[in-house]
Write a structure and sequence with these properties.
With 763 residues, the chain is mainly beta. The protein is 12% helix and 33% strand. Keywords: Cell membrane, Cell projection, Cilium, Developmental protein, Differentiation, Disulfide bond, Flagellum, Glycoprotein, Membrane, Signal, Spermatogenesis, Transmembrane, Transmembrane helix.
Length: 763
């Protein structure tokens, strides 16, 4: 009995459906043709050997490419008659056969005769892609259409499929399957290039022909894989691939296209919908929902031809396009047959249930958000079901390995007619709480958030899923600022007006190296102080270990004091400072990085950052600790490392870079200045020796003041006084003789000179 019912159902499905209205309304586009004006086709006519394709630009809805016996390119949705699309003869393509095409921003990529050519439709220029050494058969990729964000500069994320070497054993194709993954089809499964999917393969799936892959727009990771006898679907970039079922109402007639009497001619997809036209003159429709995808058949009417192609004009509006040759003109006309999906689904013969959603809206749709590490984002959606129905909302992200979320669904009131309103609150985190550190979260990624209804009827054509793009990466509004509460100007040590008047200072040659290697220079360095960039320097006492207080700001708001690891480097090469800790005292388990090694590795002095930093506390770091007494040059983090200044005053201009890869996706860096003060000139004799000599001289003077008068009253003292008096008398006589001789002659006696002192002049 069950078998008879199934046979009867299939028989009814194969019979033409009775419909009171035509499936579509056809019209012919014929414009721009003037009699007695002959239009020539310039260049080599392109053609497409396989079954007809129609490729729409995922962002610019009026731009499309038709691939058939003739190729047509349009910027107005085929609303004018068109000449066949050609490539300039100067490109020397040989056989002008197109095998694949892809839109990437303002470029149209075409594979012609196994080479990739680009056509810039904005400047109307052609180029041959360089650097591709292998024959190419297909190009594929994705586009980001959120033009209002700096993260969404449309990138050419396209790759190419190489011609198979051993078709019987290996069939491979590279494809950009989502915003953050590139994958390859290898022996019936997907292999991925980026973490964490690169650690495993997708589940294997069966196919029995050469698959064409269509990436649904919207960057949700939705893939359609098809050829004439197969139609496969994946909503997670190929990790799971399932067949598309053929249904009638709630009943599944065929679990795959291969089982059904269907020969696919052409398919069309948009963000949420799927349409299929077959050589059996049938049109099928389905949505790209969460549950296993399925399609239903519309009424039998004559809509198919060998050159017919499908495209969605908008949500729920499908167009069947057919080029029409004109015997009098080189330009082709176009027959366009519009299909109103919503109107057709109301046919009771289709047994489609009534839409169970009255309202679904979220303010976050078609916007782009940014979540940095340790940040969160809250999004809300409003949902109203039809009376007497219940809904199952789902929140999905296309890259759950880098974006964590928590969703809450609750009643939020009633409508005026008594329907229950529900609110869905989804909190998203820049790092999933369940993912421990360390892990490969250094790279910024993109993730698409989608809110949909799991049990949504196919008739809910106008109720589209809510979707937005979340960049898990650098928040460009973030910056670091060095706290400067005590400046040299506020304390009167320096004058701000003087610093702004072409102020300069000298770094002595003993204390700087232009190569940043700690070697003394051969000459002093004069540095002009940039007050506009640096402001008044922070005041630092030379004899106190120091490190800056680093603040994180977002726009004009203070966020927190940065506790992450960072590095400093004096921008002029000054090295008259050291670090308070060594690798050993910093408890390193491996040899730490330092500026000397990083400059040698990177080739520049300011390239030590979060991308190349390796913590010496990481147990996975296999660099042995060979020199434990070397200076530890990383500040912040788990250590109490500080800067120690040498005994001299002066300016330091520091470059600071946050190197902790798990603090932010941003390269947080800045430049600031300090002024070190309080270092008096170095004394040649120690203070202890000076004190002893001073006390000794005082005691000696007191002793002499006491002893000399007593000695002069003795006989020995009397003899000393007579000797001094005689010596004084002789000196007086000599001086009088010289004075009288000079007065007589005006010259000194022979044998005597004037002494002179020659001093060094500083110019």
């Amino acid at each position: 009995m069950l078998m008879l019912m199934l046979v009867a159902a299939v028989t009814m499905w194969l019979r033409p459906l009775v419909t009171a209205q035509p499936l579509c309304h056809a019209r012919t586009v014929r414009t721009g043709k003037v009699f007695n004006v002959i239009q020539d086709v310039q260049g080599d006519r392109l053609y497409f050997q396989s079954t007809t394709r129609l490729i729409k630009h995922p962002c610019k809805k009026n731009i499309a490419l038709y691939l058939g016996k003739q190729v047509f390119f349009t910027t107005d949705n085929f609303e004018t008659s068109l000449l066949p699309f050609t490539i300039p003869t100067s490109m020397q393509v040989g056989v002008p056969e197109v095998t694949s095409a892809h839109f990437a921003g303002s470029l149209l990529l075409l594979v012609v005769n196994h080479k990739v050519y680009t056509y810039d439709y904005e400047s109307n220029s052609w180029n041959l892609s360089l650097g591709i050494k292998h024959p190419v058969t297909h190009v594929s990729g994705d586009n980001c259409c959120y033009t209002g964000s700096l993260f969404c500069v449309v990138s050419i994320s396209w790759t190419w499929w190489l011609t198979p070497v051993i078709p019987a054993l290996w069939e491979a194709g590279l494809i950009a399957t989502s915003a953050s993954q590139v994958s390859v089809i290898l022996l019936g499964m997907f292999k991925y290039s980026d973490h964490p999917l690169n650690r495993s393969l997708g589940l294997s799936f069966d196919y029995n022909g050469t698959l064409d892959i269509v990436i649904a727009p919207g960057q949700k990771g939705i893939l359609l894989l098809w050829f004439e006898k197969s139609l496969l679907f994946s909503h997670n970039a190929g990790q799971l691939v399932d067949t598309v079922r053929v249904k009638k109402g709630d009943q599944t007639l065929f679990t795959s296209i291969f089982e059904a009497p269907i020969t696919i001619h052409n398919i069309a997809v948009n963000e949420n919908e799927l349409a299929v036209i077959t050589q059996e003159d049938n049109l099928y429709y389905g949505n790209l929902g969460i549950v296993p995808s399925s399609i239903i058949k519309f009424a039998d009417q004559h809509i198919w031809s060998e050159e017919a192609a499908l495209m969605f004009r908008s949500s729920g509006i499908l167009e069947i396009l057919t080029p029409l040759r004109d015997a009098a003109f080189a330009a082709f006309d176009f027959q366009k047959c519009l299909v109103n999906i919503q109107a057709i689904l109301m046919d009771p013969e289709l047994h489609v249930g009534r839409c169970n959603i009255e309202f679904l809206k979220g303010e976050f749709t078609y916007r782009m958000y940014t979540i940095d590490m340790h940040s969160q984002l809250e999004l809300t959606a409003l949902l109203i079901p039809q009376p007497g129905t219940s809904l199952i909302p789902l929140v999905m992200v296309s890259n759950p390995h880098s974006l964590g979320f928590q969703a809450t669904f609750y009643e939020s009131g009633y409508t005026s007619d008594g329907n229950t309103k529900y609110k869905l609150v989804s909190r998203h985190f820049g790092r999933p709480k369940r993912v421990p550190l360390p892990c490969s979260l250094k790279r910024a990624t993109m993730s698409t958030l989608t809110v949909d209804i799991a049990n949504k009827e196919i008739s809910c054509v106008d109720i589209k899923p809510l979707s937005t793009l979340i960049s898990v990466g650098c928040d460009l509004d973030k910056k670091i600022v060095i706290q400067n509460t005590v400046s040299a100007c506020s304390k009167g040590v320096l004058d701000a007006s003087a610093l702004q008047d072409n102020y300069s200072f000298i770094i002595e040659k003993e204390f700087y190296d232009p190569g940043f290697q700690g070697r003394q220079s051969s000459q002093d360095l004069r540095v002009f102080y940039s007050y506009q960039q640096l402001g008044c320097p922070l005041l630092v006492y030379y004899d106190t270990p120091w490190k800056p207080v680093v603040e994180l700001w977002r726009k004009d708001r203070f966020q927190e004091v940065v506790g992450a690891e960072y590095v400093l480097l004096e921008v002029n090469g000054q090295f008259s400072y050291s670090y308070s800790q060594t690798a050993k005292s910093a408890m390193c388990v491996s040899q730490p990085q330092n500026w000397t090694t990083m400059i040698k590795e990177t080739g520049g002095p300011f390239l030590w950052n979060r991308e190349n930093y390796v913590s010496c506390h990481d147990p996975n770091n296999d660099a042995p600790l060979r020199w434990p007494d070397v200076q530890y040059q990383i500040l912040g983090g788990r250590t109490a490392n500080q800067i120690i200044f040498s005994h001299n005053n002066g300016f330091y201009v520091f470059y600071i870079s946050i190197v902790d890869p798990y603090y932010s996706y941003c390269q947080l860096e800045t430049v600031f200045s300090i002024y070190v003060y309080g270092a008096f000139p170095v004394q040649l004799v120690s203070p202890g020796v000076v004190t002893v000599l001073l006390i000794s001289s005082i005691l000696g003077s007191v002793w002499l003041a006491y002893m000399i008068p007593r000695l002069l009253r003795t006989a020995h003292g009397c003899r000393m006084k007579r000797f001094v008096a005689e010596l004084y008398g002789r000196c007086k006589t000599v001086c009088q003789f010289r004075a009288s001789a000079t007065a007589r002659t005006g010259t000194e006696p022979l044998g005597r000179h004037r002494s002179s002192y020659g001093g060094r002049s500083d110019h």
